[in-house]
């Protein structure tokens, strides 16, 4: 890596002006609040709870190693994103990064896929969270209670987001504490005091491979990790509300991955080792094993306390998702790339948040919740598309960054990988393609729609985005900068007067 003098940096507003924008937001978000936002979006508690049974019934206890594999792969992606956001600390994340690294049309498609993936992710989390909220208050879980509880969760998050960045940061920190208690605290307790199995069980397939090879089975259980490790990019979605974002956001993204990996490992391992009937879970006879594990290890009162922690985590997760989606919509609209862009790009004078974009980030998921009420079979394809869509959007940025490097781009932000940048970029792209193949691989044994539902969902989003792009031509209405990575890097170096020197060894 290269080292630069500590004073060789642009002030936040000057850096923003170099990128062609004026500051309209309060920079009240600290490093820890930014990390909390990304971590509660990533939400290992939500991920482990949602996928533990599926992972164990598909690949057995060794499926835990997908947490390690995916964490390493996504850490590579976060390093690439870190260099990009350090040069471009502006709202919207994936959209402005793709635009400034490649161009308007390319960014349109990346953002179109990413917007829909985020919208349906908000829907999925609200739907899954409804089950915990009804359980906490002793309400029977029915399609009606799921709908109204999910809508209530969306509206509650919207009200908090309307209040401003400070409240967003406060609730994100509360959610972070709930996540850490719920995953690391409980995981350690289960590992230390409630362990019923040996650690060697994580190398025991428990017959999941049948009479064939274990490799296909292990690959099929990849969702155990792939579902967990996204959300770190949300740290960059709110860049213009973070003080010293060019330095802090890359650190926050990497912290999100690393702490998320440790949390998920403790949680997953704790549940597996404390399971009173692990064989039944692996055999698929117990489809929702965590309540039974909690009841047997914590008792009725302890299980209820854990439900409170879980509900806090879900609230914070929906809050973070809404905030990230609204900033992406705002960034997209600010450049004139969406219908109603003037309305969508308005920022409240009082709270300094994009209120209209927040309304959309609440209303569209609410409408999808209503559709799921009338057809509950939509929830699984909606969730599956969310994961694949986000991975596709991520890799469009990684590919664009690699393309610019081959054209001579050397990132000029305070965070730089130096000569390792190209190697890390290629490795991140290779990992991403591998992950997308695993996610898009059709199932077998069901109907055509069931087997190909994820690919069908992605195809619908891609085709609709392309049709709008080439019919409405939103790219022609936008004059914001594009494809200027090398020029901006040169201007930043000119203004800072930086001269790269080799970092001292040892």
TrEMBL record:
- Membrane topology note: Multi-pass membrane protein
Which GO molecular function entries does the Swiss-Prot or TrEMBL record give?
Answer: transmembrane transporter activity
Q: Which GO terms describe its cellular component?
A: membrane
Q: Where in the cell is it found?
A: Membrane
Task: Record the organism.
Answer: Leucobacter komagatae
Assigned keywords, A-Z: Membrane, Transmembrane, Transmembrane helix, Transport
Record bears the keyword Membrane? yes
Where is the major localization of this protein? membrane
The protein here is known as Amino acid/polyamine/organocation transporter (APC superfamily)
| The keyword rRNA-binding is assigned to this record | no
TM region positions: 31-52, 64-85, 106-139, 145-162, 174-193, 213-232, 252-274, 305-332, 353-374, 380-402, 414-440, 452-471
- Taxonomically, the superkingdom here is Bacteria
């Amino acid at each position: 890596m290269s080292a630069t003098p500590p004073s060789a940096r642009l002030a936040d507003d000057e850096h923003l002006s170099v990128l062609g924008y004026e500051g309209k937001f309060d920079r009240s978000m600290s490093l820890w609040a930014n990390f909390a936002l990304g971590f509660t979006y990533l939400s290992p508690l939500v991920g482990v709870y949602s996928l533990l049974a599926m992972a164990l019934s598909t690949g057995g206890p060794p499926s835990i190693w997908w947490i390690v594999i995916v964490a390493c792969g996504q850490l590579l992606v976060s390093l690439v994103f870190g260099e990009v956001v350090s040069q471009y600390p502006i709202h919207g994340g994936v959209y402005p990064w793709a635009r400034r690294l490649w161009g308007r049309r390319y960014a349109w498609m990346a953002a179109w896929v990413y917007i829909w993936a985020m919208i349906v992710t908000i829907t999925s989390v609200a739907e899954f969270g409804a089950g915990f909220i009804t359980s906490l208050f002793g309400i029977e879980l029915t399609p009606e209670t799921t709908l109204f509880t999910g809508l209530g969760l969306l509206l509650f998050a919207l009200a908090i987001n309307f209040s401003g960045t400070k409240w967003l940061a406060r609730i994100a920190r509360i959610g972070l504490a709930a996540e850490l208690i719920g995953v690391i605290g409980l995981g350690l307790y289960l590992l230390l005091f409630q362990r019923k199995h040996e650690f060697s069980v994580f190398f025991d397939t428990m017959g999941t491979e049948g009479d064939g090879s274990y490799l296909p089975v292990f690959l099929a259980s990849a969702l155990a990790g792939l579902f967990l490790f996204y959300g770190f990019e949300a740290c960059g979605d709110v860049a213009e509300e973070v003080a010293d974002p060019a330095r802090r956001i890359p650190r926050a993204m990497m912290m999100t991955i690393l702490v998320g990996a440790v949390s998920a490992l403790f949680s997953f391992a704790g549940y597996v080792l404390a399971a009173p009937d692990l064989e039944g879970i692996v055999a698929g006879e117990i489809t929702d094993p965590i309540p039974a594990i909690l009841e047997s290890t914590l008792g009725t009162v302890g299980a209820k306390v854990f439900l409170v922690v879980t509900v806090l985590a879900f609230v914070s997760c929906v809050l973070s998702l809404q905030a990230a989606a609204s900033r992406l919509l705002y960034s997209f609209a600010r450049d004139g790339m969406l219908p109603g862009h003037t309305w969508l790009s308005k920022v409240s004078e009082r709270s300094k948040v994009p209120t209209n974009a927040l309304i959309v980030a609440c209303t569209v998921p609410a409408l999808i919740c209503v559709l799921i009420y009338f057809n509950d079979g939509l929830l699984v394809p909606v969730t599956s598309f969310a994961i694949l869509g986000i991975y596709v959007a991520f890799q469009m940025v990684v590919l664009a960054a690699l393309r610019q490097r081959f054209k001579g781009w050397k990132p000029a932000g305070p965070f730089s990988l130096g000569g390792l940048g190209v190697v890390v970029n290629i490795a991140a792209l290779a990992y991403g393609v591998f992950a997308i193949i695993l996610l898009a691989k059709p199932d077998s044994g069901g109907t055509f729609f069931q087997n190909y539902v994820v690919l069908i969902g992605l195809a619908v989003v891609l085709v609709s985005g392309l049709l709008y792009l080439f019919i409405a031509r939103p790219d022609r209405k936008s004059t914001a900068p594009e494809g200027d990575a090398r020029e901006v890097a040169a201007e930043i170096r000119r203004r800072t007067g930086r001269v790269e020197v080799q970092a001292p060894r040892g």
